[in-house]
Design a protein that fits this description.
By secondary structure, this protein is of the alpha+beta class. The protein contains 13 helices and 4 strands.
Length: about 350
């Protein structure tokens, strides 16, 4: 029976090779293949398109768009710190920024600290921009509009580009390398609750990670309800045998409505992964252990996780992370890594 299955597999491989070679030969044939013969990318197409639609819809309606605010304020920051700094810059997006800033300031956000802090940052950067930028009709119009916007709160220090005083890292390389070596994927946890304060601390460290135009197009969905953890832990692949042992699961979820164009669709994976690694190492410093759970793009599992987490079509799950206190009696894989000469090339 085993030999027969191997024979069938070899026949199917022989049939597939020329078929795939043909359809991979041009962009058009590849698009035709994934339109007719495979639905593997259909969910991504839909998620990217609905994300783009929502972004442009908010732009058209001049409604709340924090992603746009964060992107354009950061673009101004980069213009302010350039050497030499151009006399006039930001003409392509300053009107767009002023409009979304004004719309957000006009909302009643007195109790929303997250938005308030971002608006203070936007105000300080805009104020600095208008104080140094050269004259232009668009800039004059936007400056007049900005000066009429009444922002009722401010910070103790200006949130504008500053000179970085390098005093050396408080963490030395040898200590950091030891931390990365000690980190291992843990699958056996103690039946001990994980304080939410510690989770929040790790997330605060995670969001310090670099993000394209400071958009942070992701969120962390923390699942610590025992019943819900058991339900979610069986959805990803790779948890067989230890799914019932996981105390907390964090779902890293990307927001495709953070982007105006398909060209940026991969940023949810890049930015979220950078943040996730910082979060993993933060947990290590607190004595908590983690395991990054396998998350392949499988329709049935995508549907299940979106239903449980009540996700919209614009959202995509990037990865799942198991978190808890490691059981000292449980083993971890040695996981030998590639040698430096094999994984590194200069120029």
């Amino acid at each position: 029976m085993v030999e027969f299955k191997q024979f069938i597999k070899s026949i199917l491989l022989m049939v597939r090779l020329p078929f795939l070679r043909l359809f991979s030969s041009t962009f058009f044939l590849s698009a035709f293949f994934y339109s007719i013969f495979s639905s593997a990318f259909w969910r991504e197409f839909n998620s990217v398109l609905i994300g783009r639609y929502l972004y442009l819809k908010r732009l058209h309606e001049k409604s709340e768009n924090m992603f746009l605010l964060r992107r354009n304020v950061h673009r101004l920051e980069k213009g302010l710190l350039m050497r030499p700094r151009r006399s006039v810059f930001g003409l392509k997006y300053i009107e767009e920024l002023i409009n979304v800033y004004e719309g957000l300031v006009s909302k009643d956000i007195e109790n929303d600290l997250s938005i308030k802090n971002q608006l203070i940052w936007a105000h300080d950067v805009l104020e600095k921009y208008f104080s140094v930028v050269g004259e232009h009709t668009i800039i004059s119009k936007c400056r007049d509009q900005f000066e009429k916007i009444d922002i009722a709160y401010e910070s103790d220090e200006k949130k504008v580009p500053f000179n970085l005083i390098t005093k050396g890292s408080p963490v030395q390389y040898d200590e950091f390398f030891k931390l990365t070596k000690n980190r291992r994927s843990v699958r056996w946890f103690l039946p001990k609750p994980v304080p939410r304060k510690m989770i929040d601390q790790a997330i605060l460290a995670a969001v310090q990670s670099p993000s394209s135009c400071n958009r942070l197009p992701y969120e962390f969905r923390v699942i610590d309800d025992e019943k819900m953890v058991k339900e979610v832990s069986t959805i990803p692949m790779g948890t067989k045998g230890f799914a019932d042992n996981i105390p907390v699961i964090i779902a890293v979820v990307g927001h495709l409505d953070a982007f105006f164009n398909e060209r940026d669709r991969h940023l949810i994976y890049i930015d979220a992964s950078l943040a996730s690694m910082a979060m993993v190492l933060s947990f290590e410093t607190m004595g908590l252990s983690t395991c990054c759970l396998n998350w392949p793009d499988i329709p049935k599992r995508e549907k299940s996780i979106k239903k449980v987490l009540n996700l919209e079509r614009k959202n995509r799950v990037i990865m799942l992370l198991a978190v808890g206190w490691a059981d000292p009696e449980g083993k971890v894989a040695y996981s030998e890594k590639k040698p430096l000469d094999l994984i590194r090339k200069y120029n």
